[in-house]
Amino acid sequence: MSRAYAAAHRGAVATRALARPNAKTLAIIGPGDLAEPHLQAICAIRPIEHVRVWGRSKAKAEAFAAARHNVTVTDTVEQAVRGADIICTLTSSSEPIVKGDWLEPGQHLNLVGSSLRSSREVDDETVRRGTFITDSRSHALSQAGELLHAIGRRVVDQSHLKGEIGEVLAGSVPGRSSEDQITIYKSLGHAAQDIALAHALLLRAGKSDRVVAVDW
User: Fold this and answer.
1) Of the four listed, 4, 62, 158, 212, which is most buried by Cβ atoms within 10 Å?
2) Backbone angles phi, psi at 138, to 5 degrees
């Protein structure tokens, strides 16, 4: 399993915990190496009927969409975001490409592409509007650029980070509490979680006689 697929599986776990069960429209921001694994993983846990993709290179976005009947290329990020139930940002952008003013009640966002405190895929308003969950609290408070920028500008404080996805799964931290709630999962990559995921997949493969490749 590659790092891209590990990231996608983490995102799918968060999506299952935080997105609305009837989510049908997926927006993929960034048609790079992370796009296909996220498409597969999220379609496996939500009844996705339509996918929108945006990329800085329209040709790359069109190539991604070409072999898939339910994928539409949008001209702007805003067109991809508005009306989507689930939004995955999969870019290395250093400046926000998603604006909080575009968000609608009930959406879920997976912020995956950027993992440095100097980079942000979404703006402060996005952070402010969303219930913010991450993979690791300590990692987020040192490297999650979107959250740290919003804290630095006093748009939110540290308490805006509600918890880790593991705490949501364990029931010690609430996840989605209403249909209208906007939820955000910030993925920074967590080695212990990746090892646990690989172990679980290998065990499952052993029970079903399937082979799972772990490529780290």
Assistant:
1) 4
2) -65, -40
- pTM for the model stands at 0.87
Give per-residue pLDDT as tens, 146-156.
Answer: 999 999 999 99
What span, in angstroms and rounded, lies between the C-alpha atoms of 190 and 129?
A: 25
Residue 196: inside a domain = no
Looking at residue 138, its amino acid is: S
51: left (phi over 0), alpha (psi -120 to 50) or beta: beta
Report how far residue 23's alpha carbon sits from residue 30's, in angstroms, rounded to the nearest whole number.
20
**What average pLDDT does range 173-201 have in this prediction?**
75
The domain containing residue 35 runs over which residues?
3-190
Residue 200 lies in a domain: no
Q: Are strands 71-73 and 86-89 parallel, antiparallel or unpaired?
A: unpaired
What CATH number corresponds to the domain at position 144? 3.40.50.720
Domain membership flag for residue 202: no
